[in-house]
Structure formats: C-alpha cells, structure tokens
Amino acid sequence: MKRTRFISAILLIVCCIFSVTQYAFADSTYRYESESWQLYRLGLFAGASSDRFNPDLGAKLNRQIGITLLLNLFGKASEVEQLSLQEINRILFPYSDQSFISSWARPYMAYAVKTGMVAGTSPTTLGPLGKLDGVSFAAMILRFLGYPVERKDFIDSIKILCNKGGLAPSDIDYFNKPELIKDDAIGMAYGSLFAVCKNGERLIDKLISAGIVDRETASSFNLLRYYTPIGVNVSKGNYIDRPADYQKVYGLITDALLSAETSVVLPKNQYTERFSDIVDIVETCLRENPEILYYRGFVYNPNGMLTFRYSKDRSTVLSHREKLESRINDILSQLIKPNMTDYEKELAIHDYLVENCEYDMDAVNGNEIKAESFTNSHGFLLLKICLIAFLCGTM
C-alpha cells in the first residue's frame, strides 16, 4: 500500500508540473492587446463592452477615456458606482461643457472632480473631449500614485514614471506622443502596476492587499514571483499570455464553472463554431482547474448559450469550494516555510501526499463510487490535487 500511495503521489505531481496550458495565439494589430486582456481579467479594465472583452484599442485617447481608464486601474470603480445620479449631476453642473461628457463617463468624471484627482481645463470647463498626450497621461498616473506633479516637473512626467518603475527607459521616447490612442494608454497603465506608489508599495501589491485584484489571477499572469502565507513578491514577468480567441472562450467558461454559474454566452469565433471544439475547451478547463466542483455536463445552443449542470445546488458548491480553499491555505501554512526553494516546496507537498492520501478501495470493491468522489471538496484526492496545482501555479 505504501508503494502504491508513493507512485500515486509522484504521478499527481508530474501531471501538475507538466500539464502546461496550451493556448492558441493570434497576431495583434496593436502593441498592447495582451496587456489589455490581462487588465481585463484582473478586473482593472472594462473595455468598450459591458458583457465581453472589447478593448477598442484604436480609439483616440481623450480626457474622459483616460480618467475612466485610470479610475478602473486604481480600483476605484466600486466607489464610482456609489455616486447617485443626483450627486453626479450636482458635481458636473458648474461646468459649461458637461453636456459633452458621454453617459458612461459621467460618474467617473464626477468622482474625479469630487476627489480632486483632476482639475478642470478652466474654472468652468472640464474638457472631456480634449486629447491627451503622453506627458499629460503620465502626469495623471503619477498623481494617482500619490505624487504631486509641480508645473516645473510636468514636462518630465514620463521620465519620472520610468524612475518610479512604471516604464522601461526604452518606453520614454515611445510614449512621448502629441496624441495617444487607447493602446498607448493601456501600455502605460499596465506598466504602472509595477510602479512604486508614494507610500512605498508597488501598485499591484497594493491592489492585491486591498482585495481589488485576486491573488491567484495575478499569479496566473506571472505578476507574482511566489506566494507564501507571509506575503508575496511582485515580479514583472517576461511572458504574457496572448488574448487569442481560444483563451477568451477558455476564460469565460472557467470563470463560470468556478462561480457555479448555470450558463454563459460564448462569443462566435473559430473556437466555438464546432461542438467538438467546445467539448475540448470545457474538458481542458476541468483538467486544469481541479477546484471546479460538482460539474455534471453541459448543453450548448448554437446561439452561443452554454448551459451547465451540477450535482449540487449553487450555494452548496460555493460553500464547499470556500471550505476547500480554506483547508488548502491551512495545509500550505503548515508545509511552506519562508525562503524555501521550489524543490523544497514540491518535496514537502509530495511527502504530505504520501503520508495522507490513499485510494478508497472499499468504495471501488463495492462499486459505490459516485461522481462526487472526484469533485468533492471533502475528498482527500481532490484536496491534494488542488494543493499541488496551487503551488505549481504560484512558484
């Protein structure tokens, strides 16, 4: 039995380490399309659509677009949503050009004025449609990071943002443009995730600590070097997932299954044209995300609607997943110590598996295995798979 358990543990570790996600890649017209996808998945970029990824990267950048983009980037969207219509109208009323503000941008412009994040182009105008150049947008980012930008420093804003870790030296000339498009803004906004705020924290770390960015999502994009119970290290990874059509569909399905949603609408593209392709993506999602619980199957409608079936109700699924994640964190806090090497982490989890995990042979011999045996948050096997997958994904 000991040898059987040992071999099983080794196989689990090998599967988790070598089951590298295979993504389809697509050429992009824009330089920062992949960064826009990352910001979208991190919840820091809304794009031009309320229900799907549409970055609209070719749009010219004006003040209302730039302010909206930055307020989302800095995790202020929930505070913006708390403004009432009456308050928004009251804040914007003194400005003679407030009628030129797009309806979607009015809450963001009002919030920026209320909090002093932006000043008007004059005492009575906001200039919502005024174009933004690279220097002005860099100055806005610096103010959001907590730095005052004096008149004498304004012209050097891009260089200062570089010095704060938000841009590479080679980016200074690239972004010094008289008029930006949204693609440029995304490049500068993404770089600012790694800038040091005035309080000494990097922006991405600050967003994670505040609960605005999910730690595991950030880790999946190589934004964290590693995570232990005592903290994280921020790392601007060299590899960036491309926002290919396959990956968009994969993300929508995975998010829905993790949240135990009953349905999701898929975009029409080359990866959703055939039923067999959708089956492949769903199976990949399940294989690479073992924390998905109680999934039983799906029905696909040619109109794009994917409907899921579960063996438990949604509240039970979410409750068990929460317990599972709590148990994983408890085990990690016991096994993973500061300054451990990657090998030592894997060895610690391997040893834990060998000592604690074995097959339920009584259920096998009695032919009593249920589907939940493979997706039950209280099952030892799933717990160990998730534990290894979590570690392998964050090292």
Could you please describe the fold and organization of this structure?
This protein is mostly helical and 395 residues long. It folds into two domains: 1-26 and 244-395, no CATH class; 33-213, no CATH class. Helices cover 49% and strands 6% of the residues. The chain has 19 helices and five strands. It has helices at residues 2-18, 33-41, 63-73, 77-81, 85-92, 106-114, 134-144, 151-154, 157-163, 171-175, 182-192, 203-209, 215-220, 245-258, 275-288, 314-335, 342-356, 361-365, 380-394; strands spanning 224-228, 231-234, 263-265, 295-300, 305-310. It has a three-stranded antiparallel sheet with strand order 3-5-4, covered by helices on one side. Strands 1-2 form a two-stranded antiparallel sheet. Strand 4 (295-300) and strand 5 (305-310) form a beta hairpin. Helix 3 (63-73) runs parallel beside helix 11 (182-192), helix 7 packs across helix 9 and helix 17 (342-356) runs antiparallel to helix 19 (380-394). The longest helix is centred in the last third of the chain and has 22 residues, at 314-335. It starts with a helix and ends with a helix. Residues 1-27, 226-235 and 381-395 have low confidence and may be disordered.
